[in-house]
Write a structure and sequence with these properties.
The strands form three sheets. A seven-stranded mixed β-sheet has the order 2-8-7-6-5-3-4, sandwiched between helices. A three-stranded antiparallel β-sheet has the order 9-12-11. It is of the alpha/beta class. The mean pLDDT is 96. The longest helix has 32 residues, at 317-348. It has 15 helices and twelve strands. Strand 3, helix 6 and strand 4 (149-153) form a beta-alpha-beta unit. The structure holds pyridoxal-5'-phosphate.
Length: 416
């Protein structure tokens, strides 16, 4: 190879091996060689039921299959169908809307599109975006793609508590050198740990950011990534923190990434919304305008069929109730698998990061690559992260959980 590159200077050198899809390939090879019974595929972030079949919400499946072609396939408006936008806001807040705020939504291709629009529209080129050290890998990709820089803080202290002083210190540090700060909280049911921020942690953080915002030159954008919110507990218990977004100054903007990928198990239909919450009508209107413009300039419109489905959920209580009930069954399935894994982990002395819900559990590791390779010798496929191993409990049948913690402990303590 000559090293010659045709790429523009900002694009040269881009490219990465997707950690998850790399492991998935190995798992599929093992499946072909040894059969389903012998393989544990803990890599993919989609739900497989206890028979190891792809899980869909039957109500969603029925509704989509009966949808007329025009609704399924035609263009949607650039910002999203109005009924969809209304329903996305209702689904995100489920009755926990903060008072005296202006809330606007714009359709995006999944939560990914929402994350992209927030990163791009609320940070300057070259600026740092604050993400915890345990994070969903594509944040880094999206940040780099848009010529920003990722800055991390340690998410947990030595007692595995959320490291709130670390977020504060890093925020202060960044606010000294830049006037805009975008900070990401993926909660509840954080990927990859399963952590959910507590109400008191939200209160403390918002008070802190209010103090920072007394300097009117500073613009603080908080992105709450809600990808797993519907797989942690009931809608009534998972959204209490949202009422705290009341009474914030106009230079603090709350943004949310709402996704139908997990909430409706509709990963491939690429639908979600970016939601903005502000005490200022002007900021909320600007939010709608600039994010709609980004849609047009990046991917045009979203998937009409998925938007129509959510719009229908918003106005048809029977359909909503069916979806909620079917999703609840899967949430319980996940929580049951997690409870068994965590119980066995405790019994064998395997350390895990705090899990409260969602699709993943993470085990810290000194050498995650070596440990996952060791596990793969036992046909267990999990994703090596920088400082740990991620188990997608969403894709492991309950019957395959017993012994998994012990095997992991063994892989961690072996000399490789
Ligand atoms: N945020 C987190 C933390 C995720 O794990 C995911 C998906 O895996 C997303 C956002 C976005 O997913 P999508 O673009 O499919 O909605």
């Amino acid at each position: 190879m000559s090293g010659f590159s045709m790429a523009a200077s900002h694009a040269a050198g881009k490219g990465e091996v997707d950690a998850v899809f790399g492991v998935l390939r190995l798992a599929n090879e093992a499946l072909a060689r040894h059969g389903k019974e012998k393989v544990i595929n803990a890599s993919v972030g989609s739900i497989f039921d206890d028979e190891e079949k792809f899980a869909a919400l039957p109500a969603v499946d029925d509704y989509l299959r009966k949808m007329p072609a025009e609704e399924l396939m035609n263009y949607a408006p650039i910002a999203g169908l109005p009924g969809f936008l209304e329903a996305a806001v209702e689904q995100a807040f489920q009755g926990k809307k903060p008072k005296n705020t202006f809330i606007r939504a714009v359709a995006t291709p999944g939560g990914t599109g929402a994350v992209r629009n927030v990163f791009y529209n609320y940070s300057e080129q070259g600026q740092k975006i604050l993400v915890p050290d345990w994070f969903w890998g594509p944040y880094r990709t999206i940040i780099h793609e848009h010529l920003r820089v990722m800055e991390n803080y340690p998410m947990f202290d030595e007692n595995n508590n959320f490291h709130i002083s670390a977020v504060k210190n890093k925020s202060l540090e960044l606010l000294q050198s830049q006037d805009s700060l975008v900070v990401v909280f993926n909660t509840p049911g954080h990927n990859p740990t399963g952590y959910s921020m507590k109400h008191e942690e939200w209160t403390e953080l918002l008070d802190f950011y209010k103090n920072c915002a007394e300097n009117r030159k500073k613009k603080i954008t908080i992105l709450v990534d809600l990808a797993y919110i519907d797989f942690v507990g009931s809608a009534e218990t998972t959204r209490d923190f949202m009422i705290l977004f009341e009474g914030l100054p106009e230079n603090i903007l709350i943004t949310m990434a709402y996704s139908m990928s997990k909430s409706f198990l509709l990963y491939g239909m690429r639908s979600g919304a970016v939601i903005g919450v502000s005490s200022s009508e002007e900021v909320a209107e600007e939010f709608f305008r600039i994010n709609s413009f980004s849609n047009r300039g990046v991917w045009s419109n979203g998937t009409r069929g998925a938007q129509r489905l959510l719009a229908e959920v918003g106005k048809n209580p029977e359909l909503k109730a069916r979806c909620d009930e079917e999703r609840r069954v899967y949430t319980e399935m996940l929580l049951k698998r997690a409870a068994l894994f965590l119980k066995e982990a405790k019994e064998v002395g395997l350390k895990t990061l705090p899990y409260h819900g969602g699709f993943f559990i993470t085990v810290p590791a000194q050498d995650p690559q070596a440990a996952t390779e060791k596990l793969a010798q036992d046909n267990i496929f999990a994703v090596p992260l920088k400082k740990g191993i991620r188990f997608a409990i969403c894709s492991i049948a309950l019957s395959k959980i017993p012994g998994l913690a012990a095997k992991t402990k063994e892989a961690l303590s072996s000399k490789y």
